[in-house]
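User: Please run a holo structure prediction.
Assistant: Happy to. Please share the sequence and the ligand.
User: Here you go; the ligand is zinc ion.
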Amino acid sequence: MCNQLGRKLTVFSTAAFESLSRIDSKFPFNKYLLLPEHLVANGILKSEQIITQYEPVTREQLELVHCPHYISRYIDGTIDEKELRRIGVKWTPEAVRRALHAIGASCHAAKLSLQDGASASLAGGQHHAHYDFGSGYSIFNDVVVAPEVLKKQNLIKSWISIDLDIHQGDGTATITRNWPHVFTFSMHAQKVFPLRKSTSSLDVTLHSGMQDQEYLSLLDHHLNNLHYRVKNGQLLFDLIMYQSGVDIMAGDDLGCLEISLEGCKKRDEMVVEFSKRCGGVPICSTLGGGYPNPKIHDVKKSGLERIIQAHGNTIQALKSI
Ligand SMILES: [Zn+2]
């Protein structure tokens, strides 16, 4: 099915670059293999709408955002153990290849969203990566690199980050803090990582145990305020980078909220609706957290299957663009 621009949604997957050597990580890397299968099996996308072979991000593109020495240390493998522990992902040559393709996926998706109105990376959302260090499973910050590549190419002038992962987009906020062409909106829980928060343009902190109604009305309130500022010319952006982490769902191993699968879906629809209300500003979505709790067997809570479903719902919402 085509959107209003006559285009089908096209997304970018890292499935071809996922490696068995990463199984020792606590991070659920298998979701990057399972999500494309889920999208096709459930008729959300056809396999030809999922691009698996593409160019990785270049060092030059990373240098628009990150310290050249940090980039070199990571790519060349001279990064030290302490820095790697902070990232939480084992270093291997395959992990470097995957990391560069994950950032590349967001770069390609952001560019395609300018043409098609929407696109997505089925990875990325590495919002804890800072200028010269990585943390919290984030090596390089695709949420910042992807739009900055477009800005360098004079394809956009300004952009907004809407970050609805349960963890604050601290790297995104810190890197862009003094950049007048960027607005960062992060809605996150107070009591989870990172314990020391950064300052976004707009931070909304959530209390533990929050449920759908309260969460969605808070999001609605802030999206309405942002829309009001857009309508009055006080806020301008040519691209929405949407970090659609699903670790807001009840039972998430690294979360503390009680949002249902349905509530998470509604959240995605509200962000897509916001892009339409702002005059059809292109939207580029990245994934984000979603950490299955192996001890939970309640079907209403976050096992891997529900996390995949929630990510699938984000892609479904983008199809209405
Ligand atoms: Zn998260």
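The chain has a mean pLDDT of 94.
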